[in-house]
Amino acid sequence: MALQARIEVEDVSVLFPLYHGSSRSLKKMVVAAASGRLGKDQQQRVVVRALQNVNLRLSSGDRLGLVGTNGAGKTTLLRVLAGVYEPVAGRLRVQGSLNALLDPSLGMNAELTGRENILLRGLYNGLPRSMLPRLEEDVAEFAGLADFIDLPVRIYSAGMVIRLGFALATAIRPQILLMDEWFLAGDAVFMEKARQRLEEMVRGAEILVLSTHQMSVVREWCTRVVWLEQGRVRADGAPEEVLPQYLGTPLEMA
Ligand SMILES: Nc1ncnc2c1ncn2[C@@H]1O[C@H](COP(=O)(O)OP(=O)(O)OP(=O)(O)O)[C@@H](O)[C@H]1O
C-alpha cells in the first residue's frame, strides 16, 4: 500500500537574484521594491526575498488555501513544493505522488501533436503501455479539440492550449495536488466541464494546496488557510479564523 501523503517545510527561504533588466524581471523588481523585499546576498547581488523562513506541515486530509496580496509569495511556495524552485535555506520533505497544476503549457512540447503530448505525459508519469489508449481517449475527449488533436500544439490558440493542458493535468490522479489559479481561466462552457473534473480530482487527493485570490473557492474547498505576507507566514489556521483577519486588512485584490 502507498505511504500516506505528507509535506514538511522547515525554515524555507527563497531568494531571486536580479541579474538582468528584462521587462518581466523589472516588473517583479518594482513590486518587490514597493514591498521592501529587495536585499543583497553574500555576493552582494541584488535579490528579492520571495520566501523567508516558512514553516508548514501538511498531512493526509489537509486542504490548504494560500492567500495573500500580489507578490506575497504564494506562487513561489507552490513552485518550491513542486520542486521547480530550490530553497536557498531550509528543508523540504514531500512524501506521496504529486501533480502540480501551475502552468497550462508546463511539460508540453509545442512541436508535437496533441495526441503525441498525451502519450508522452502518460509515459513520463510511469503509466503502463496498456493504459495509454485509455488515457488518450479520456484526454482527447475532454479537451474537445476535434481534428486539432493530430496537429502540432504550436498552432493551437491560447484557449486550446489551456484545454489540452487542463485535460492532461487532470488525467492522472495524485496523492498531492498543487494548484495555481490559472485553472479558473477558460471559456464558460469549458469551465463548467472543467470544474466537475477538478472537483473529482480535489476530492480524490489526500492533500490539496491551492493559491487563489477568490475567497469563494477557498471557502468551498479548503479546511485550512495560510496567509502569506511579504514572503512570511502571517497566519495559519481554519478558514473561519484566518479569512476575517486577512479580509480585514487593506487589499489590492481579495
Ligand atoms: N523569477 C523571479 N525573479 C525575480 N523576482 C521574482 C521572481 N518570481 C517572483 N519574484 C518576486 O518574489 C515575490 C513573490 O512572488 P510570487 O509570484 O510568489 O507572489 P504571489 O503571491 O504568487 O503573487 P500574485 O498573487 O501576484 O500571483 C515578489 O516580490 C516577486 O516580485
TrEMBL record:
The keyword Iron-sulfur does not apply. GO terms for molecular function: ABC-type transporter activity; ATP binding; ATP hydrolysis activity. Pfam families: ABC_tran. Residues 26-253 form the ABC transporter domain. Keywords: ATP-binding, Nucleotide-binding, Transport. The keyword Coiled coil does not apply. GO terms for cellular component: membrane. Belongs to the ABC transporter superfamily. This is ABC transporter ATP-binding protein.
